[in-house]
Amino acid sequence: MKESLFNYRFEYENQKYIFNTNNNGLIQINNDIFTEEEREYLRVNRFWVDDNEDEIALLEREINHNIQKRQKELELTIALTNYCNFSCVYCYQNKNEKLMTTEVANMIIEKIDRILNDNIFEGINIHYFGGEPLLNIPVLIYLDENIKKITDKIGIVYKAFLTTNGSMLSKELLQKVKFSSIQLTFDGLEKTHDRLRVSDHFHFKEEIELIENIMNFSQAKVLLRTNICKENKDEIIALHKYIFEKFGNERIEINPNRTIKYHQDDSFEMLSVQEYAEVAYQIKLLWSEQKGKFELPVPRSTPCKFPYGNAYAISPEGYCTFCSGSMDQEKKYFFDVDIENKKMFSVRKECKKCNILPLCLGGCIIQYNLRAGACTYEKYELKNILISYIKHIS
């Protein structure tokens, strides 16, 4: 027998622990001399494995099985336009004034109708995206109404999600479209936010007022996205505390992200993965304290869904690209996509000796290709995360 590649050993208050990132198991040990009963427990729970076992090959097989099996929900991200009325300093998109037409929308609706009637899905999730999607409200409403007709007829669940800068989100739209979640971005406290998210009319104060409208005129949750860079890292915790104090946490979710430089002349400084990890850990710790719920890191059952055919991003022209963050890939109409055609996952060479691999499965492909660092923050903060959990359960 040999110790699992995915074991992470650490000490806290003179006690020794092992956390296995592939089985989500945390154990306390006294030493490395075990009884037969303890050895059997370690073997069954895969803290120890057979000498000839290839854990990477087994992980790849398991992940590919998960990719190939039918998903419960059809996941689509629909970019209604690539145009935006903001000029955020970190924007990656090539803006143009192209809007999705009803003709393209009809093509998408027809494909959705065919997929949902031919396949067994329990639901469909539509993420309305841009650019700024609310620059094309008529087509958003058109899609929403027609998709709802399809799902009502079949008897499956339809959930609508919106990513928006908020500047055009009215009370009337909140009442008309039953969004499950609305992602809003705050990039620091007022002064910093307004410098990074450049708008001539919609600023920090207006976005705070918008959260109040969402709370009052809809049942949607607010997904609080933060794009973290050197310019705002020191006030991100204060921002989250401000939001929680003002709106509570029942309908607020968090989505911290490291801001990536897509262009060398972008006017901000990118954090290293390790610098970002320190901030991300503090955010997650604050969130756990807010919820009164501390959890162990959970291994991923699949990598990012877009590259492997379990989610699709659709451009304003109706092309299907593998990621909403990269709309310039090979062009193929969504109408022509075979949703049964899944790609195979394999672990990159440099990840094969990493004991936290199951937590990220290699991370974001786009960030990797940009050489911007694709590792998860847990790689650098795992000990602190585990200690926080132990403190909580004690």
Automatic annotation (TrEMBL):
<keyword id="KW-0408">Iron</keyword>
<dbReference type="Pfam" id="PF04055">
    <property type="entry name" value="Radical_SAM"/>
</dbReference>
<dbReference type="InterPro" id="IPR007197">
    <property type="entry name" value="rSAM"/>
</dbReference>
<dbReference type="InterPro" id="IPR013785">
    <property type="entry name" value="Aldolase_TIM"/>
</dbReference>
<keyword id="KW-0004">4Fe-4S</keyword>
<dbReference type="GO" id="GO:0046872">
    <property type="term" value="F:metal ion binding"/>
</dbReference>
<dbReference type="InterPro" id="IPR000385">
    <property type="entry name" value="MoaA_NifB_PqqE_Fe-S-bd_CS"/>
</dbReference>
<keyword id="KW-0949">S-adenosyl-L-methionine</keyword>
<feature type="domain" description="Radical SAM core">
    <location>
        <begin position="70"/>
        <end position="289"/>
    </location>
</feature>
<dbReference type="GO" id="GO:0051539">
    <property type="term" value="F:4 iron, 4 sulfur cluster binding"/>
</dbReference>
<dbReference type="InterPro" id="IPR058240">
    <property type="entry name" value="rSAM_sf"/>
</dbReference>
<dbReference type="GO" id="GO:0003824">
    <property type="term" value="F:catalytic activity"/>
</dbReference>
<protein>
    <submittedName>
        <fullName>Radical SAM protein</fullName>
    </submittedName>
</protein>
<keyword id="KW-0479">Metal-binding</keyword>
<keyword id="KW-0411">Iron-sulfur</keyword>
